[in-house]
Amino acid sequence: MADEPEKKVATSxxxxxxxxxxxxxxxxxSRILGALYVIPWLMMLGxxxxxxxxxxxxxxxxxxxxxxxxxxxxxGAVAKQVAHYNAMNEYTTGRKLFRSGLFLMxxxxxxxxxxxxxxxxIISTGDxxxxxxxRSLAWPLLIIPVMSLFRGFFQGYQNMxxxxxxxxxxxxxxxxxxxxxxxxxxxxxxxxxxxxxxxSTFAAFVGALAxxxxxxxxxxxxxxxxxxxxxxxxxxLNVSTRDMLxxxxxxAIPFIILDAGITIFQLVDQYTFFSMIDDFVIGxxxxxxxLYALFxxxxxxxxxxxxxxxxxxxxxxxxxxxxxxxxxDFRDVRDQVDSTIELFFFIMIPSAVGxxxxxxxxxxxxxxxxxxxxxxxxxxSYMSIVLGLFTVVSAMLQGLYQNRLAIAYFIVGLLVKIGxxxxxxxxxxxxxxxxxxxxxxxxxxxxxxxxxxNMFHLKVAELVKFFSETLLFALIMYAICVALQQGLYLFLxxxxxxxxxxxxxxxxxxxxxxxxxxxxxxxxGDQLLGSRMAGLRRRLGIK
Length: 543
Hints:
The protein is mainly α. It has helices spanning about 10-35, 40-45, 50-70, 75-85, 90-125, 130-135, 145-155, 160-190, 195-230, 240-260, 260-275, 285-325, 330-355, 360-365, 370-400, 405-430, 430-455, 460-490, 495-520, 525-530, 530-540. It has a domain at about 35-250. The longest helix has about 40 residues, at about 285-325.
């Protein structure tokens, strides 16, 4: 049974691979579903799609801020601290931490929900239509903090399946309600698009409730096993509830700052791009709005699908590194850091390069054919590797209790971004903010990796070799995909959404086959995935 303790103790690498597989699958399905629903949703809204999309964005931008406040980085901190206490055989303390956090999350959820609901008329920027949309997003704030805490608790036990499954169920429930409500309001009742948007945003509550029910079911299944662990724990620590909550908040602060790192860089673009681009490009505010939307909204929504892969690895690595660090098993720490970086290269590089290869049909399917938009998406796809790397290495540094260094390096990267923003916009125009973001995150990531190398003496030569081989195979895949795509467009219309969908499916399938064959044939992935690769080669008849 899934909830029985394993007969064989899994190694850190096996736990990391299994956890990453669960989190990657859950995150990928959720992100893809979260992107695909936009197509039928906008179609149902018809001529109101522009206004509806703007209302949806206004509501969610404000909601995101309240969501960060309401969860306050606690779930990540709980995962880290539960793993820390479990490594000390203090399972009772970990359970106590969870119960204390549950109370804190209930209070934070209530305060945030009430504040968002009451402040809606003030923060709606004078748009009366935005008020019901914003208020509909107060309801999920009642549930999501508690739901996130459950996920953090499971992750502290390196049990990623509940988080992944609940994430997928949350997205399915949200999208089903969103599309069904929009169809009923717009097509059956011929109602207002404002009402449709309000129900579309309320769908976050439906999704969160479904997710919480899944997590509660998993919790009840595992409770007896956890009770056994608690009965046999050392029980030598006597930490007061007050001290536990203070420690939780202290550990949560870096998670808040670093989890919002990409968003903070995007805010720099939001408040500098328009004034800076005006110095170099002749155009109206509407022209600049359209340029800004290309990289800040359109491309960003798609590349976050691949960046979510890195987030999955980051979530998995934190409790594992915390456990090994607590045990002072620094060799295991080094091996985990090496394996996490290799796994990042193995998954992220072909995903990002693959998205760049199919940028034209992908952009056309979602937003319609646009030459500049396609180029921005392709460049953003490459940049997603840098965003993902920062996400992973900053999480690893937090798992190793180097919170201050992680924040300091992030601030250095942010200052670099601000410093090069103007010259990059001068040189590269609409691509300038993306180049500046890449430079800033590269600096921050390098400083973090350099610190970890100094602390644990990473196998740099092996990492560089693995990176080079993975990149080479990704570039071969890219060349084949682009050639195939160009050949298909000799017969198909690149501006047609249906034709673009056909091109995307064919090219992406060929790309996956090419990369998979090269990895299996070269045995590059064997050091990471071991016998799994040999078994797959045997079944496919690859020597």
